[in-house]
């Protein structure tokens, strides 16, 4: 019997690299069999003596969930509903709010709120807790139950009660569900700079969408732009092959990412292809990242940073450096298991530490950015430890911000700047693209960002 494997580096997605292998079972010692006997004793006692009759499938699923929960935050058992949710995400359309959430100590915690969705427009933020849905307490339920309640028919209303760290009292937000179209890429041109906003890598067409964005930018200008801003902020990741494809678009050669499994010789390296060459034609590139940029987004940022192809700007990323393999157990169930760590071309593991930007630029246009919690991989229980033993200083918020960034949100509002990080990136590209100045001696003096 063979098992189908799908690989993913995303927080919520499944991968699209498919292979088949025969299941391997390691040697089991006598003490393990004793533990299994004890498990069966507990199973039988619960079946016979629990105060209410419990379905056997419920008990077995609970045992499986508990086993996988003891490993790391990203390994899990997928039942029929989970598989359907995975397909829904890959297909890219569902009725809901546009939220990515996780469970922490029995409470539902927001990971990201997609822009141009009900959640994004309502101002929900990373680190917010959802305590009630339609005035009913969520605490103690499962994440699946909470997600099911938040999804629904487009046009229907829902009331969320939010607890935000740093705010004294909970507050209610009324939202109207919409058809959430998971458009992986959007683009625009500002001051001759092409801006490519990659929202997710879950969609299997992300790479093709980036190519279309580049073509659209060039067509709208009638020529190449001054450079590109690749916006990966609040991108929770997704498919491994799409991360590789996107990085390849901007590279002519060199390694993009390597995967390393349990054994020392279990290493797989992925490289840029020489054909077609860099579609950005060597123009300046800035990659914008923040604490919500995870997994597949970190692969792209790390590859372009290590290959000296782009300047990474913003704030330190989430720090998810592991690969999940989805193994089909039956027609309806599967196992999502962490099977490898990934590394950037220079051999860095982003696990725990994330990608540190070349230039730290805070989001000054967000009035509460200083107090906003920044949830990262290192905050999750049972997260994998970085094998390279990252210095604790790397896990800090990179020290004090650059003294150049002293403007307040009110100052920026007066200047008409709604997104300080993006505005700063566009202006930096414009400076980098300026032609060299000629000196009195006829030599060239380069100008640009310093």
Structural notes for this entry:
- The chain has 450 residues and is α+β, with helices and mostly antiparallel strands.
- Helices cover 25% and strands 25% of the residues.
- The protein has 10 helices and 23 strands.
- Strands 1, 2, 3, 15, 16, 19 and 20 form a 7-stranded antiparallel beta sheet that branches. Strands 5, 6, 7, 8, 9 and 10 form a 6-stranded antiparallel beta sheet that branches.
- Strand 22 and strand 23 form a beta hairpin.
- Helix 6 packs parallel to helix 7.
- 37% of the residues are buried.
- The N terminus and C terminus are likely disordered.
Mean pLDDT: 82
> Number of DSSP helices?
10
Number of strands: 23
Rounded to an integer in angstroms, the radius of gyration calculated over CA atoms is: 24 Å
Helical coverage, percent range: 25-40%
What oligomeric state best describes the polypeptide chains here?
single chain
The main pleated sheet reads as: 7 strands, antiparallel
The structural class is alpha+beta
Report the portion of residues in β strands. Answer: 25-35%
- Shape, principal axes of CA atoms: globular
Taking pLDDT < 50 over at least 5 consecutive residues as the criterion, the unreliable ranges are 1-6, 11-24, 391-396, 437-450
Terminal CA distance reads: 59 Å
């Amino acid at each position: 019997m063979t098992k189908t494997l799908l690989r993913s580096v995303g927080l919520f997605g499944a991968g699209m690299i498919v292979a088949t292998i025969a299941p391997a079972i390691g040697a089991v010692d006598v003490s393990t069999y004793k533990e299994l006997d004890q498990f069966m004793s507990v199973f039988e006692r619960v079946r016979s003596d629990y105060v209410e009759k419990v379905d056997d499938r419920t008990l077995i699923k609970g045992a499986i969930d508990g086993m996988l929960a003891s490993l790391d935050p990203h390994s899990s058992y997928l039942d029929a509903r989970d598989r359907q949710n995975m397909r829904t995400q890959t297909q890219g359309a569902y009725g809901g709010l546009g939220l990515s959430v996780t469970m922490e100590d029995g409470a539902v915690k927001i990971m990201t709120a997609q822009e141009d969705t009900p959640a994004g427009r309502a101002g929900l933020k990373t680190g917010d807790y959802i305590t009630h849905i339609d005035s009913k307490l969520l605490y103690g339920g499962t994440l699946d139950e909470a997600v099911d309640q938040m999804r629904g028919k487009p046009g229907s209303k829902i009331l969320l009660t939010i607890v935000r760290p740093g705010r004294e009292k909970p507050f209610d937000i009324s939202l109207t569900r919409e058809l959430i179209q998971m458009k992986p890429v959007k683009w625009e041109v500002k001051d001759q700079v092409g801006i490519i906003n990659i929202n997710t890598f879950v969609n299997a067409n992300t790479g093709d969408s980036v190519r279309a964005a580049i073509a659209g930018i060039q067509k709208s200008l009638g020529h190449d732009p001054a450079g590109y801003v690749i916006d990966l902020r609040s991108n929770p990741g997704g498919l491994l092959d799409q991360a590789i494809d996107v990085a390849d678009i901007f590279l002519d050669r060199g390694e993009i990412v390597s995967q390393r499994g349990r054994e020392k010789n279990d290493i797989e390296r992925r490289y840029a292809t020489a054909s077609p060459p860099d579609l950005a034609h060597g123009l300046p590139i800035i990659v914008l990242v923040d604490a919500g940029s995870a997994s597949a987004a970190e692969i792209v940022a790390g590859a372009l940073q290590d290959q000296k192809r782009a300047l990474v700007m913003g704030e330190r990323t989430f720090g998810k450096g592991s690969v999940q393999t989805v193994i089909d157990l039956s027609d309806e169930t599967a196992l999502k298991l962490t099977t490898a760590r990934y590394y950037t071309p220079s051999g860095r593991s982003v696990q725990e530490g994330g990608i540190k930007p070349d230039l730290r630029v805070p989001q000054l246009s967000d009035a509460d950015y200083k107090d906003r919690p920044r949830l990262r991989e290192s905050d999750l229980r049972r997260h994998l430890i970085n094998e390279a033993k990252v210095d604790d200083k790397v896990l800090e918020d990179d020290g004090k911000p650059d003294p150049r960034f002293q403007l307040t949100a009110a100052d920026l509002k007066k200047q008409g700047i709604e997104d300080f990080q993006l505005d700063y990136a566009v202006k930096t590209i414009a400076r980098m693209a300026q032609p060299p100045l000629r000196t009195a001696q006829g030599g060239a003096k380069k100008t640009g960002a310093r």
